[in-house]
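Homework help board

Subject: predicted structure for assignment chain

Our instructor gave us this sequence and asked us to write out the predicted structure in token form, then describe one feature. I got the tokens but I'm not sure how to describe them. Can anyone check?
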Amino acid sequence: MTILTRLFALGFLLSLAWPCLAGQQQAPPASSTTKPGSPQLGKSQPPTDSTTRSKSSTGDAVPRDYVIGPSDVIEIAVWNNEAVSRTVPVRPDGKISLQLINDVQAAGMTPMQLRDSLSQALASYVQNPEVSVIVREVHSFKVSVMGEVKEPGRFDLTGRVTVLDVLAMAKGLTQYADKNKIAVLRREQGVTRTIPVEYQRLLSSDLTNGRENFLVQPDDIIVVR
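My token output:
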């Protein structure tokens, strides 16, 4: 075979092999895989433990002087004692049930008062008990609004709320409401007491001579005639 023929054959073979060689020399694409636990762009990540918060049914923080009532849900935590620690509802009779000490009165107390009561009761069974009480859900603080308001009903409250606040929750007075005939009906020691609401004076800037915008209490009924 002549030299010219050999060169022609070698060139033909190189022309066939060149696309494969060129493809192998290209840089491999960047890996799309990510390490376990690393964030991925374009995708929302679940919050970490430090930002996750438990939410009560009310969504609002309960003030320290809140008075526990029936149907509220409270968390009792005793340090290093999971057998006693638990989350319990307050029964209609105002009591809760815990191991070791059985039934305990909870309604009518603030969380701090209940903590002290539980600490004293557990002292006979647990050495130096460290107790914490947290109100997780509020269901006992209810106030009713009836009469000439735009949205009458029964409202769940979580803390300090005034008469005007509750009227605002009821979307205000109707055009037929008599602003001089608004009263709060409050049950005290078995007797219903009528507390007049000086609506016009409450809305004015001068409150020096009028009844202050007082706080409502559980089971109050606001009547607008």
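Reply (TA_rk): Your tokens look well-formed. For the description, you could write something like this. The CA atoms of residues 64 and 111 lie 7 Å apart. That's the kind of observation they're looking for.
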